[in-house]
Amino acid sequence: xxxxxxxxxxxxxxxxxxxxxxxxxxxxxxxxxxxxxxxxxxxxxxxxxxxxxxxxxxxxxxxxxxxxxxxxxxxxxxxxxxxxxxxxxxxxxxxxxxxxxxxxxxxxxxxxxxxxxxxxxxxxxxxxxxxxxxxxxxxxxxxxxxxxxxxxxxxxxxxxxxxxxxxxxxxxxxxxxxxxxxxxxxxxxxxxxxxxxxxxxxxxxxxxxxxxxxxxxxxxxxxxxxxxxxxxxxxxxxxxxxxxxxxxxxxxxxxxxxxxxxxxxxxxxxxxxxxxxxxxxxxxxxxxxxxxxxxxxxxxxxxxxxxx
Length: 308
Description:
The protein is mainly alpha-helical and 308 residues long. Helix content is 56%, strand content 4%. The chain contains 14 helices and 3 strands. It has a 3-stranded antiparallel sheet with strand order 1-2-3, with no helix packed on it. Strand 2 (174-178) and strand 3 form a beta hairpin.
């Protein structure tokens, strides 16, 4: 596959990338999403320039050649699929701005990839993990509040670190969350989580806060807002110490989020409610949890029925 990372980009493709960036900003896309689209788009336009293809010259056949080159270069199906999704957005933008008549990427299917079910902890494992976190230091109090809330409300790591002190509504027993695409949602928070947050605010956050804390709820030991890497690292630390918790599947903030949704489904919550709690734009994203439940039932049947 011919690619020249340092080669200049033609004016037509530079304009196309600028239009995509402008549209993503207008739609409230996260910075890391815009960066990923810029990287994927930049890689493709350099390939297109090397093959003397202007935006109007790109057709499904050319895109299939490009995708085949990615696969031959050792790119995983998930990576190729993501890059093609970026190109679909790029050409959709050109269509919307009248630069093209149709989107050549609409006729291109993503490479097949193995469907992996999300890793889910059992309720007893979640309890063992959370109960293992003591209340003896400021950082432990913070971590207990952090992960109690992650499981109680099904929040993403990015959403947890963006919370401010004012995001917690104790009287209403709920939390105001800034989700993907700058969309705000209100989700309930259980009593154990609210009690852990109250202890943290009373006994730990004042000791961690500095002039740079700026209202952030969860603070690092230096008084700054926690990062998502901090959240993942601290959860791994406590997971290794918790008795009865398997770390083989990778205990992560997203595993707590998956566990939140699966346990709701197991106990009778409907998919539409779970979709709203998770902040999913589409119900199809939430339907992965029905596969988790189905897999659990099949396993229970196979292990328990005498003629399974």
